[in-house]
Design brief:
Elements (H helix, E strand, L loop, with lengths): L5 E7 L3 H12 L4 E4 L7 H6 L4 E2 L8 E2 H12 L5 E3 L4 E6 L5 E5 L4 E9 L5 E4 L14 E2 L12 E5 L3 H10 L5 E5 L9 H9 L3 E3 L2 E9 L2 E9 L5 E5 L2 E4 L3 E4 L10 E2 L2 E3 L11 E3 L4 E2 L7 H19 L18
Parallel strand pairs: 1-2, 1-8, 2-5, 8-21, 10-17, 11-12, 11-17, 12-13, 20-22
Antiparallel strand pairs: 3-4, 6-7, 7-8, 9-18, 14-15, 15-16, 19-20
Helix pairs in contact: 1-3, 1-6, 4-5
Bound molecules: flavin-adenine dinucleotide.
Flavin-adenine dinucleotide binds next to helix 1, helix 2, helix 4 and helix 6.
């Protein structure tokens, strides 16, 4: 059997950061492969908030999550990298001679001279809603917002009080008939401005409450029973659909055993995005250094640094960085 192709760089993770990193890698004429465990590219943006309006990308005052990902994907494709989805990388090893072998859960092997890890917080699994009768209403329990129209004129209950829940509440308010937020904690704990915006809105907020039971007719959800943690009193809230924003279990998984230094939130890098293993770099949410900001824009800066480091690793005499794209031969 013939050996799979050898790439200059393989990027693990096709979230927003992996996608932009693939574009920049093309600018540097690196033969690039981009691999993701999910069925489609886009990372957390695709998975958790494709309909949310993102406001902290410089130069794009407002852009919906799915639009940003479509743009990044188009940009990533400029230099035709190989993009592989549905491949969770579980093993990475350096071969005698220096190249790396990456193996996916299904046993597929990928060969690369360098590796950039842009795997966010690792693979994720949502924390479920634990209440009576959830199994009876699977189609009315939502863990991500993929189609806003499905919520139009509906009575929505949001379970949770962190950013994912509050973002969903704000996104749904303009289309839903009503939005009620049920949170077990004593005060909402999202970003300050998000909490302020929600408190100013028409949403009804029940803190120190749990959703205890779902009920309806056949498989049609009609209401949820909530209980106050302090008084024990229950009340019924009308409900057509529930968005569950209980956060996710994120796990770097096998990556912790790949030999580089890791921290609680990811992989330790220096200012050149180098991990403790020469030839392996990291960027985006997974890359850890002091005062790291976990937003998309930060990763869009780190990706090119990681690529430049990979280029210099392969060819120490190479230029430190790419020409700006307007001066790049591909755009002339
Ligand atoms: C609810 C919520 C709202 C947010 N809102 C904003 C916002 O408004 N503005 C903003 O700038 N940021 C926001 N963020 C943060 C932002 O989403 C992250 O900073 C960004 O997604 C990081 O991009 P990334 O590409 O590094 O990682 P991710 O988006 O996490 O993508 C990583 C990719 O790597 C893949 N992967 C992981 N492990 C493997 C493996 N072993 N093999 C193969 N593939 C793997 C995953 O499947 C995933 O697709 C928000 C985050 C959340 C959770």
């Amino acid at each position: 059997m013939s050996q799979p192709e050898l790439y200059d760089v393989t990027i693990i993770g096709a979230g927003p950061v992996g996608l932009y990193t693939a574009f920049y890698s093309g600018l540097r004429a690196m033969k690039t492969k981009l691999i993701d465990a999910e069925p489609a590219v886009g990372g957390k943006v695709r998975y958790f908030y494709p309909e949310k309006i993102i406001r902290d990308i410089g130069g794009s005052p407002e852009i919906k999550g799915h639009e940003l990902i479509a743009n990044l994907k188009k940009q990533a494709e400029t230099f035709q990298p190989t993009i592989v989805c549905n491949e969770k990388i579980v093993h990475l090893e350096q071969l005698p001679g220096g190249n790396f072998i990456l193996e996916s859960e299904s046993g597929t092997q990928h060969f690369s001279k360098t590796v950039i890890i842009a795997c966010g917080s690792g693979t994720y699994e949502v924390n479920p809603l634990e209440a009576e009768n959830t199994a009876n209403f699977p189609s009315q329990l939502h863990y991500s917002l993929t189609d806003l129209e499905a919520f139009r004129d509906k009575k929505i209950v949001i379970s949770g009080g962190g950013n994912a829940a509050l973002d969903a509440a704000l996104t749904l308010l303009p289309v839903a008939k009503s939005v009620q937020v049920i949170y077990r904690g004593d005060d909402l704990k999202g970003h300050e401005e998000t909490v302020r915006e929600l408190k100013r809105s028409n949403a009804t907020i029940h803190v120190a409450h749990n959703i205890e039971r779902l009920s309806g007719e056949a498989d049609k959800l009609r209401q949820v029973m909530i209980r106050c943690k302090e008084t024990g009193r229950t009340q019924t809230v009308p409900c057509d659909a529930i968005f569950v924003g209980h956060g996710v279990k994120v796990e770097l998984g096998a990556m912790r055993n790949w030999g580089f230094d890791t921290e609680e939130w990811g992989i330790t890098v220096d200012s050149l995005m180098q991990t403790s293993i020469p030839g392996i770099f990291a960027c985006g949410d997974v890359a850890c250094y002091p005062r790291k900001i976990r937003i998309i824009l930060a990763g869009l800066h780190e990706g090119p640094i990681a690529v430049n480091s990979a280029v210099k690793f392969l060819e120490p005499q190479a230029a430190d960085e790419a020409m700006v794209s307007t001066h790049h031969e591909s755009f002339e």
